[in-house]
Design goal:
single chain, alpha/beta, 2 domains, six-stranded parallel β-sheet
Length: 418
Amino acid sequence: MENHHFDDFDFTINDDRESVRDLLNMKFKQRCKRMKRRGEQYIYKEQSKYASDILSAFKNNIHLSTFVAPVQWGKTGVIISLIHKCCTDETLFINPNNVLVITGMSDNEWKQQTKKRLIKEFRPAVNHLHGILNMNFDEDFRDALIIIDECQIANQDKQSIRKMFLRNNLNNLDYLREKNIRIVQTSATPDNVLVDCLEYDNTEHYTAIVNLNLNDPTRSYKFFTDIDETRLKETMDLTYQPNVDKLFEDILSFNKPRWHIIRIPSTKKDADNETINNLELTAKKKNCDIKYHMMHNKIDDEIDPEQLLSERPESNKHTIILVKNKWRASKSYPDKYIGVVHDRFTQNKPEFATEVQSLAGRMVGHGKLQSKNPPIIYCQLRCIHEYINLFNNNFDYEKTKEWKKSKKPSYMNKMLDA
């Protein structure tokens, strides 16, 4: 957890603070230049704008903030921009040693991807579940920025984030003010966290929700509403062979080899094995390759998934990736060479946030759906349709009754400390 990149600076001395600001500005500008040379952009104008809005709220003595954006809109860019703005601002002091980017997910891929996007001086700040289980701050911990990514995960009473808050007195708003600790939580599906934040008045909490004009055909961000209805289908029970045959018809409808991602259900082992067996036998019959991305299996030991999926399969065959307990919230990957994605089938009550953040959610975003033959997406359609309604209602859960969320209080609930 500790960051030692700034150990040579004394932050009680103004000259040292200025030197750190200069250093961070230089490193930030250099990262922007490097990505521009590759034809990419580090931070987009809209991301910088929302980061500035949150910084302005901080300067108005706000210590708690929630940032909500649709799936794959670019929350990480806002996080990066906010860290940079806070640590280089001349009026609001945030100690760069005390910047933390945490999540309740136990997910090494999230950790690696987030670190990769930050400049190296802030990479020690990134911690997932295992990093926060024993996270304890010293008494002199202050002037801090704590960002909770995917705040819908492990957020209830008796769960990891709440326990960490209690250990470090972060549930005490007066303590946050005394120590100049700022907390930002982000998610595409904030659910009970956002509901609990409504208990705070405007002098205590600031909410920023991305305003997206879905009627603007020129926008680079593609939402679920941009997917042709013929390419958005209901998930199927793949223990039933005729459904597997139907799935492979879609897989083979792509003339050139692509990657096809199928999530294996993690409920009954017999169903898991039967699904895998059906897919393996059919893939062999149809001359398709199979790879596995599970707890103890990686698609490739050397190449990260984002890079691998950016090119056609080397085998020059349609390649099915069987996924289990991987690639949920936050992961980003290109869709140009993805053919079919099929999320897990379940007869249980749908978990709306989980479904939206899963494979279907990876298929939207900036620059997505550009191919003449975009991906075919199998998912729980009800969840997707209600997420569209939720977004159109500006995340007003009272107006979106059919969106099913947790009714349990989150770590932000004031009544937990009453």
